[in-house]
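User: Last request for today: this protein with protoporphyrin IX containing FE, please.
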Amino acid sequence: MTTYTVPHPPKPVVDRATLPPGPAELPIVGQSFQYVFNLLDFLHGAATYGDLVTLSVKPALVYMVNHPELIQELFVTNHRSVGRGRVTETLQYLMGYGLVTSDGPLHLRQRRLMQPQFHHRRIAAYAQTMTDFTRRHEANWRDGARVDLAGEMSELTLHIVVKTLFGLELPDTVRRIGAAFELSNDYIKARDNQPPALRRLFHRLPLPFTRRFKRGLAYLDETTYGLIEERRRSGLEGDDLLSMLLNVRDEEADNPANAVMTDQQVRDEAITLFAAGHETTAVALTWTWFLLATHPDIQARFHAELDDVLGRRSPTPDDLPKLAFTEQVLTESMRLYPPIWSTGRMTFEPITLGGYHIPAGATLVAPQLINQRDPRWYDDPLEFCPNRWTPEFRERLPRFAYYPFGGGPRLCIGEGFAWMEAMLVLATLGQKWAMRHDPSHRIELVPLVSLRPKGGMPMFLERRD
Ligand code: HEM
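Assistant: Here's the final one, the structure of the complex with protoporphyrin IX containing FE:
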């Protein structure tokens, strides 16, 4: 049997004299307090120290990468020397060794097997589900109602992902899956902010929050393994992503038994796709509605394009290239509010970056939220300006000045899926509804795994004529 090993990075050996510049640090705690309690201001301040900055977040030493060329070197040129390593250690509690959390030969093999299934021709098959579920969702909306749009988008994308991934749509099952996922999200976010030794201890002890998390996880496992067993037993093929995972064959396997994924691997990949694809798209949609609602002239132009291209009929994938302004709106929204606000790597062997020696076992972060607001690449970087995305501007922009989906061989595998889903949901809802942000709500960012608005996103719904 072939075993696919996952490499483990060593502890870094650092020569302090050769570190890039960085903010001043306190003895013993370094900059950990600012990092945990005032993360965004801290990173904005740190970025002023240069294109490569040292952060001292005890016990780790973190390199922050702030220039598109250095990000390119990290994600693309050096891709063989870097991976996720311990950056995604807490996510493994939920995802096991799926695409997001694995490295080395295992990641390469899984990516090779799964990539063709995300070809745009294949994912176009999910378009109907996306628009149908959106129509079904908005059927419950009432003119003038005040809703939490963050919750609404989360529920909608949850239903879409559960249907396209597992083929399930029973409301109670979907709700239970969503609740289990929320529980694990909270747990992972809390553990992420802890020193690794404490986190591992908490994960082993029967503490109330650990037990709650494990109960939720048991439900997700039970549902996923149940579906896997049912599909294997019945031999019935669905047209969902789970079937894809069950049916994919590795032509390069050394023997037929190794050509299919094990149940555990299918489970890890299914939960990974579910977790990676659900909240990210919901967050992208939430921020886009917020930006439209607070820029009435842009919202009016968005509506005009939908009326012009679609009239009253539902959008299809063929319409998407014609919705050029809607695409600019979404592009600009993911620039200002990148759903994954920072993407990290860990070195498996030493690399050189921007003239600095980076040892093996080092953590590097390239925060989209900071770099996509860099005045070197964007005029009026804090302005919501979809019009900036002209073909000439795109041509001029360095590749890694805009990277909401990451890049290199670890580029988000669901990018095409996410674009299609977000565009179809925006178009379907925008045909019928205008949004007005509740001005009493103050916007605050919560930069955990994804970039959520604190306290949700209260919005008034206005039915369009
Ligand atoms: C707006 C929505 C989304 C955003 C902003 C987003 C963003 C990202 C980012 C930044 C990464 C890390 C890339 C890197 O390390 O270079 C990533 C990885 C990944 N995403 Fe997404 N994502 C979105 C939607 C989706 C969807 C819908 C799916 C699945 C259906 C998905 C599945 C994945 C997977 C499996 C990975 C790991 C890829 C690998 O390491 O090989 N994502 N995503």
